[in-house]
Amino acid sequence: MDYIKQLIERYPALSGIKEDIFKAGDILIEMYRTGGKLLAAGNGGSAADAEHIIGELMKSFVKKRRAPAEFIDTLHTITDSEKALYLGEYLAQGIPGIALTAHTALNTACINDIDGTIIYAQQVYGYGKAEDVFLGISTSGNSKNILYAMITAKAKKMKTIALTGGSGGAVKQYADIAIIVPETETYKIQELHLPIYHALCLMLEDYFF
Length: 209
Hints:
Layout: H1 3-10, H2 18-33, E1 38-41, H3 45-57, H4 69-78, H5 81-90, E2 97-99, H6 104-113, H7 119-127, E3 133-137, H8 144-155, E4 159-165, E5 177-181, H9 186-208
Parallel strand pairs: 1-2, 1-3, 3-4, 4-5
Helix pairs in contact: 1-9, 2-9, 3-9, 4-5, 7-8
């Protein structure tokens, strides 16, 4: 199903950035195909968006992503039937991803020891591999902690996607693809970010499952 086409039909204002959304989808497909994972981060409402995205990827979204039969068979060899049947019924195949916003102890340690601009770069440096993708969400495109994480991801040979608005800000020069929605007010930018990342998550689920 062409979820990006449906997205543009529902949100015509996004027609001018359709190709960027498609390209971002291609990067994410290649990430999963080569065994990579998504690292996502943002601030405030964009932090919630980063966690929302990972939530859609790491479990069933609109399709049932049953665990493979061989995994279910393995469950039956290591536990009783009741537990194996439960896990086999409810475990869903995930598209690996980490919301860098969620690590309270690590992030507050970085803030206390250094400052808040390093929190995501530190995690990208620690988690990131060349086959991974960093998704930085910043409505202005100028959030320093997203910018530093984007630069760190590039140094780790990772692909980078920026989800932003306005002029795209400073992060766009470090992004392989910058999805810049045609709005300038924060809440209006965020209102367009959600359907974009939903479409990307739906596209990934449809492609692989």
